[in-house]
Hints:
single chain, Phytoene dehydrogenase, EC 1.3.5.5, 16 helices, Zeta_carotene_desat/Oxidored, globular, Flavin_amine_oxidase
Amino acid sequence: xxxxxVQSPSVRQxxxxxxxxxxxxxxxxxxxxxxxxxxxxxxxxxxxxxxxTFQEAQALSAKLKNAPRPAKSLxxxxxxxxxxxxxxxxxxADAGHQPIVLEGRDVLGGKVAAWKDEDGDWYETGLHIFFxxxxxxxxxxxELNIEDRLQWKEHSMIFAMPNLPGExxxxxxxxxxxxxxxxxxxLRNNQMLTWPEKIQFALGLLPAIIFGQKYVEEQDSLTVTxxxxxxxxxxxxNDEVFIAMAKALAFIGPDRLSxxxxxxxxxRFLQERHGSKMAFLDGAPPERLxxxxxxxxxxxxxQVKMNARVRDIVLNEDGSVKHFQLTNGEVVEGDLYMSAMPxxxxxxxxxxxxxxxxxxxxxxxxxGVPVINIxxxxxxxxxxxDHLLFSRSPLLSVxxxxxxxxxxxxxxxxxxxxxxxxxxxxxxGRSDEDIMAATMKELERLFPTEIRADQSMAKIRKYKVxxxxxxxxxxxxxxxxxxxxxxxxxxxxxxAGDFTKQKYLASMEGAIFSGKLAAEKVVDDFNFRSxxxxxxxxxxxxxxxxxxxxxxxxxxxxxxxTGFGLL
Length: 567
């Protein structure tokens, strides 16, 4: 029995598709209390190479690449060709091993998979954003020489104003060192939070600043909402900012999301000058990111097998892995084995002999969160911007006009909106028609002069609804204690995946980093230990996180007390 990870997307088409490869260069201006002006052009690659996190990631890459060559190049069979599995394969090949990647479907990418429809247009499992605070991701782009495939946008975060249809509120980050750029961005914005609310939120962060990482980790027992109330932060801060932030970070609301996730994100965005900068990939992830990773490790003796779904993990008498049995009857043997499958699929494949072990029994506490991604092709160009937008709607999380933000999807005449429908728990079983009807009502609010739910204005040419019933692990409160390390109790079996223990949580960076950490465990066990056997291995601890910045509190208190606003 296997979990169906992604359901077949639905298609509705009402008119022939017309494409244009030109880039949209118009300026978007929305009148109101605060104008939205974003020029639709790409920005230079941030100089994040000087960031400590980037250099740490770079050092780990160098460690794996320059590790002593193993006495014997090991065949490592990896189940799953998502970002975690491909990352593990890439770094294992760098260390002199031979990865054999098994992918159950006919497409690379796992949770970043994408397909082409009958018109040649791509549709994806999610709206994938690359942050400057993704050091291992940025390193892998550099190592593969594909950095030019990232389209960096203006250093801003843009939120819709629910009570002012068609208007937006911005957090613009000046080009100065962190944390001052983030502090000024927050202090400049007076639409979403009042000064008393900013001060109260800053005071609420004091324990995280004073007690550091220990405090951040302890907050995993609280949801965002519970933490806000415990710290006497006004409910409006939750309503105005953290509902949108929670849905964007983890596809769930603040009433379920662990506060550790939010504190970790704030930490990265406040401490790294370019951490909150965003980029879009210039095309579909399977071609523009995943395939270069495959090309890298296959050029070094690795393999990838598509439509190779694992049915059973077959064991030796001592409980170690003997081989992977595929659904087509094929047996795949190696020296070592790794699962880079989603946690829900892994749980179904854990052998009976392993299930009583605490390491594997804890997996029952982890489960994927449902996600719905929607693509809508319209018959005209909407007045959107070249950026990610936070909808702040009850049903939608973030959205973007991909015909403006992404080169491969560029169309100067017609828009294609990509939207994340979240939380999706109550909608994953609903019909595509119901989901689209609800989405169009939300878009009517976001585009009051251009879209009507009845399509009396902009008309839908076609749409696709991509449902992922079990996506990234649900990072609700209390889950951190159950996330396993990449090294298992089984001598020849390792784990990778965003659900495994690493500091970037359920994200693309988390997936890439987990695969890299899994490769490091193999290298530590077999490259650096002369004469190491498959039954003797060392142990390691997870890297620690950094505390949040105190300067936000100081600036908020100082500016609030004097009445001096940075406008």
